[in-house]
Amino acid sequence: MANLTATRPLQPWTAPTATDPVESTLRLPGSKSLTARALVLSAVSDGPSTLRHPLRARDTELMAAGLRAMGAHASIVDDERWLVRPRPLQGPAHVDVGLSGTVMRFVPPLAGLAEGPVTFDGDPYARVRPLGPLVGALRSIGLRIDASDGGRLPLTVYGTGQVAGGEVVIDASASSQFVSGLLLGAARFDRGIVVRHEGPPVPSAPHLRMTVQMLLAAGAAIDDSTPNVWAVEPGRLSGRGWDIEPDLSGAVPFFAAALVTGGGVTLLGWPRSSLQPVDTLRTLLQQMGGEVTLGTDGLTVRGTGVIHGLDADLSDVSEFTPVLAALAVLADSPSRLRGVAHIRNHETDRLAALARELNALGADVNESTDGLEIRPRLLRGGAFETYADHRMAHAAAVIGLAVPGIELSDVACTSKTMPEFPALWSTMVAGGGRQ
Ligand SMILES: O=C(O)C1=C[C@@H](OP(=O)(O)O)[C@@H](O)[C@H](O)C1
Ligand SMILES: C=C(OP(=O)(O)O)C(=O)O
């Protein structure tokens, strides 16, 4: 596997082992996906917007910086609020996408609305992540784009301040973010957009629903009633206040800790009705032996002392795969995690990375074409390469609760979505009740 990790200093970390069941009540940062969409929609709306409880982490700071580079005003009011004021978008500008799928797929369509060239590049592995179908779709609606072979980074969008829009056909089976990216700025295109997906199924349906719901909330006229077709009419979006929910994917390792240790973890501030796939997570954790309840104080997961194997299609919630694989190696029966071929294109080739690192600890894991087959074995401690991938680090931390001596090559990669992860995790394991 290519070692295309970031150039920043690595931070080796030994995952703490739990001697007692964890009992913890946590307030976790805001959702990456909701924050990214709120920033983009705010930048193309008519008036100012406020994001309450946004995620402050590398991905969302890069998103704000990218929009700022193109002329939008995005500032931090205080720890709880970001203010975005739309302004005419302009180049020349440079956008650093880091390793963020949302930045590399949501911002190029907006660059077409800027007057002047906008260049995009990112971390070494960002140049490997697929972008070609989006570049092709944008070219077909009138954008001039110079890109590397296969439509990858680095690329330049020669914005003219106007995007014709219209009908596009795209194969979005590699990432739902291609579709979300095309839709988020489309109300500002002269003819809006009609996106038609042709190819194997688009993954991450809940993220597409989130895009549609947030566009509707911003005042867009959007039709997703035909499967695999999304239409946004040209029109104005209104600035508004966005309440960002806590990040469900970021919560998964903490909930997994409840299962591994037979304890309980409550995530404070969980809304009654969510744009994130909480019901799917509930079903998966229940199948693995956990109990999930939504109460007035938040979302609580309790472990029952046993972890069962899981046979599940994770295409809707592929972000959960690394942590569920970590639970699966600690389970009392084998697991099959299916439907996630496309996570070979995430922050690293997650199927190869998980198989390699879990096998090195003594598990018996096979990669299939679209997932992992996992047979639990007695595990031993040892080195765990994180491949600059925050969710590989989460997986290692979960195993470390039960297996002493799990040595992560780098825990700083968790700053992609939760810079406070190592501190929160260590406090939880040390018995910190309310954080
Ligand atoms: O739109 C989004 O915010 C996301 C969509 C999904 O991408 P894929 O469809 O590429 O899996 C998800 O895995 C990613 O973490 C966030
Ligand atoms: C796949 C992920 O991120 P990205 O938005 O970079 O695609 C992820 O967070 O698991």
UniProtKB/TrEMBL annotation:
Residues 1-25 are annotated as: Disordered. Pfam families: EPSP_synthase. Its EC number is 2.5.1.19. It catalyses: 3-phosphoshikimate + phosphoenolpyruvate = 5-O-(1-carboxyvinyl)-3-phosphoshikimate + phosphate. The keyword Calcium does not apply. It is found in: Cytoplasm. GO terms for molecular function: 3-phosphoshikimate 1-carboxyvinyltransferase activity. SUPFAM superfamilies: EPT/RTPC-like. The active site is at residue 319. Belongs to the EPSP synthase family. Catalyzes the transfer of the enolpyruvyl moiety of phosphoenolpyruvate (PEP) to the 5-hydroxyl of shikimate-3-phosphate (S3P) to produce enolpyruvyl shikimate-3-phosphate and inorganic phosphate. Monomer. This is 3-phosphoshikimate 1-carboxyvinyltransferase. It comes from Plantactinospora soyae.
